[in-house]
Amino acid sequence: MAAAKRDFYEVLGVERSAALEDIKKAYRKLALQYHPDRNPGNVEAEERFKEATEAYEILSEPEKRQLYDQYGMAAFQPGGMGRGGGGFGGMGIDLEEALRTFMGTFGGGGGSIFDNFFGGGQEEGGVARGADLRFDLEIEFEEAVFGSQREIELNIHEECGTCKGGGAEPGSGSEKCRRCGGRGFSAINTILGQMRQTCPACGGAGEVIVKPCRACRGEGRVRARRKLQLNIPAGVETGSRLRLVGKGEGGLRGGTAGDLFIVLHVKAHELFQRRDEDILIEWPIPLQLAALGGEVEVPSIHGWTTLKIPAGTASGTIIRLRGQGLAGIRGMRDGDQHVRVSVEVPVKLGGKQKDLLRDFGTACDEGNYPQRHQQRDRFDEFLKHKKAMKK
Known about the structure:
Helix content is about 30%, strand content about 25%. It is an alpha+beta fold. Among the domains are: about 130-165 and about 210-270, Urease metallochaperone UreE, N-terminal domain (HSP40/DNAj peptide-binding domain, Sandwich), CATH 2.60.260.20; about 275-380, HSP40/DNAj peptide-binding domain, CATH 2.60.260.20. The termini are far apart.
């Protein structure tokens, strides 16, 4: 038995509600990473490239994506839904059991296989669950570090206030569907034998609305502008997702609302950089402090704090301040702050200052400048090799 394929959305690393543009971006990224030309002889990379390409070919075409969302890989297998080919008709095989076994190979769940094939996104009584939605929100660095309250506004389908989601004009009702006789489905003959399909007249509800609501045209939901209060917890970062259950697209004819996923994007800060719970800054120190050592006040996300500078500190040296980063979340330790010091050379010197610096330079010898001495040794070694190559 062939190994079950991974979910195509998982392969590309996108949500099931992802827009086509997001799917294209995800595929381009994976294709560049795993392309055989970039990974010669790497069998695993070649397989990942093929897997991503197969996923993209299905999810980038609306019709194929719809089939995949409803039936999974069964829609693209010989004899599967949405394809021609041989079936089980006339073979004396219990069709539902055979299809249940077949779908189980691809990770199908329990229940009747016809629930999976014909239920679609519908709930009991023919109503349909609303779609999950994604909302990208850009936040300030400070909001990500300390948390904040934000209000967002979006256009969304929500329950119709006139018919309360039922889809019928107030004072009117519904009647048994004449096409299916109130069963919600009808029988059709296929190459697989006689099978059921959801009644197109009533959508599986078994009844039809006599007089559709004028406000929502019978959908049970209307387009509206909604404001939501959002709690951004401390410690989030770019890519963090917040899930608001039931705040997505309203369901059709009273169906359950989908969920709203808030994807956060943190703006870069001019002073602070972040790596997990640690904070990194670059801070200039005066020449004499770098040479002699001492203390200097530097900023942290908690306020000013004292940093000890060892004597002879070179520009680019990183000094750690323990516990001065973000507060630990999910049981993690508190982060640290790392200060990369840069030695600042004084400018606009007066005559006396220049004389003092000249005297200082005269008093120093090569031993006071070990880095320069090391670089000279490296260059001398280069010249030695160059001379040997010419012989």
